[in-house]
Amino acid sequence: MPYTFSLPTTSSLSYLESFSSSTHPSLLSTATLHRAVLRNALKKHKRLATQARDSDLSNVLSALNDYLPYLFALDAGLSGNATNGEEIDIVLVKEVEPEWRASPAAAIPGREAPRTKAKGLEYELCFVLTTLSYAYVLLARVQLRTLYASQTPTADQRTSAITTATKYLLQANSIHNYLTTRSSEASFPSAAVDVSASTQGALASLAMAEATLLAVLKDDSYPAAVAQERNKDDKDWMIKAPEIPKVRARLFTRLCLAASEHAGRAQAMLDQSSAARSKGVDEALVRYMEDLKRTSRAKACRFFGIDAEMDGKTGEALACLHGGKKELGFAASNDEGSKLKGLAKLKKDWTERREDKKIEKGGVWGNDAGRLEEARVIEMLEKKWAKMNDTINTQKVPPSGPLLANLPSGRDIHSTMPFRPPTLDIDTLARMRVVPERDDTRLVSNDDDDDDSDEHPGSERETPGAFPGLFAGDNVYY
Q: Is residue 454 within 8 Å of residue 464, measured between CB atoms?
């Protein structure tokens, strides 16, 4: 499962106070309104229960897609570039200062990371695009959740869910690659971990690693067989056993190794990002990347063993499974292939039951990057092949180290798609030339809440019960 990102939140902002436009005066007020809609959508999403956030992602995605064309139009006007063949005159009155709360930043336990303010429209643009990529990753999680539903999905449903999730992850990868180049030319505060160039590069590699593993999962029937076996509501076993067709083991081995390389590159870049910043990155994200790298190598070991078993080399196949368990951290190096005993086995069983309950209740689960799921698949194959080897083949199980030294090199299956910034169409640009009939600055939401306060000290507020337009600082009696 892809990582569970939390969507950033932001404070209120009005572009009418920072910019002026002689050619498209309505652009500033319209962009301000769309930003207010996005801010409210993010605040609403944050307040929802975990089980209700999946259905609300479409509202957040719609607000992001509505706001981005206006934001890129403002950026083009400040840079002197044309938008859809039309010049937009934007004059800087005062520097805009957006304020965003970083998502993967390390914070005090029990408290959120503080918001970070920076000057410039570039900071706003990078954070909005990062939020869009997080929304795509969360949508991929929603698609993959159907694979573990109480009702076992059909082959077509499984393929459709994996294909859609892959599309979302590749879109997130293209956004992070775009921001890697763009952030390298900007200077942001050290606390803004999300929009740093090294963090964006790490997230791009992470999305590519997850998309590569999904290409393997689409044709890998072993995890589906394990999930079906553990599903209490599944009754298909009464009719027929799970079908496990032959897989392209050699190709899948190389794909899993490529995913492991992407995850390792992401972890290295994230360590570089956290080392250069005082606040660092959330340990959960670093731990997820480590688990993803381990899981990918364990999958490569399993497919390498499947290829050996298909050639009749059961002993070497079991040695590959032992190597996969060592990659997952479930077998000691001096006790190769041994079963977990004592407290280690109790801890593993308790963790598995906790993950199963999270799936049933719809909570946040899968942040181990599929590590426990892969361990179940390896244990299933190890039990089956060990029984065959003890009764039929009787081959010696060699050490896994020298055998896994012959693993092939990794191979990528997906190519990076270039990100195309959205632009305003000709009709919308024509409407932006009209002078706004009202002052839209007061339509920006300034409501407060305990965990996400957006009002700054010294801001003017209307006196409750007073005549509209009378503020608390006014001394007028009538």
A: no
